Recover the amino acids of this structure.
């Protein structure tokens, strides 16, 4: 495994600790020397570096000062009328657990009926691979489950799930996140 990975010119990890552990393991297992974040292997220099995952914090933080986003935040809160909000934003994909999330939300409403009319799940499912048959089938299944939950628990003027099947512009996302 190490020899295969060391065929690369650059090896990236999410954290500094992961990179350091890789370098130490390469030294222990293959007796490879390193200088700082470079490994010498088979007359090549391989760079080991850290590429953290995450969001651009400053971009999101500064967006909260935007008057348009503040207005959208207030519009969302006005529409939710002091209800608890659960926010779910993901690509419509099997790996994201959307079906399990919906099942859990239904169980929650059954187990805690005092939350009926007092909680809203805002579910944003961003389309992906929408031309593939299995993804069309997944979308139909999600649509049906949401319809069943809203039909079983909804009241006039309140639906437990607000479902958006589309990408949202940055301003809308920030408003929802905040």
């Amino acid at each position: 495994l190490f020899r295969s990975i060391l065929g690369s010119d650059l090896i990236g990890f999410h954290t500094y600790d992961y990179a350091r552990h890789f370098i130490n393991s390469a030294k222990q297992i293959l007796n490879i020397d390193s200088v700082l974040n470079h490994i010498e292997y088979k007359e090549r220099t391989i760079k080991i570096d850290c590429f953290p995952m995450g969001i651009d914090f400053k971009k999101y933080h500064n967006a909260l000062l935007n008057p348009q986003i503040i207005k959208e935040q207030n519009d969302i809160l006005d529409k939710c009328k002091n209800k608890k909000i659960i926010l779910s934003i993901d690509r419509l994909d099997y790996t994201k657990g959307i079906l399990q999330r919906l099942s859990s939300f239904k169980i929650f409403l059954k187990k805690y009926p005092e939350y009926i009319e007092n909680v809203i799940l805002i579910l944003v499912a961003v389309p992906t691979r929408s031309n593939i048959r299995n993804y069309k089938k997944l979308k139909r299944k999600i649509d049906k489950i949401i319809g069943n939950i809203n039909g079983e628990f909804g009241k006039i003027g309140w639906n437990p799930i607000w479902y958006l099947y589309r990408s949202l512009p940055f301003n809308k996302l920030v408003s929802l996140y905040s």
Q: What stands out?
A: The longest strand covers residues 84-91. Helices lie at 2-5, 16-30, 57-63, 67-80, 98-111, 133-153, 170-177.
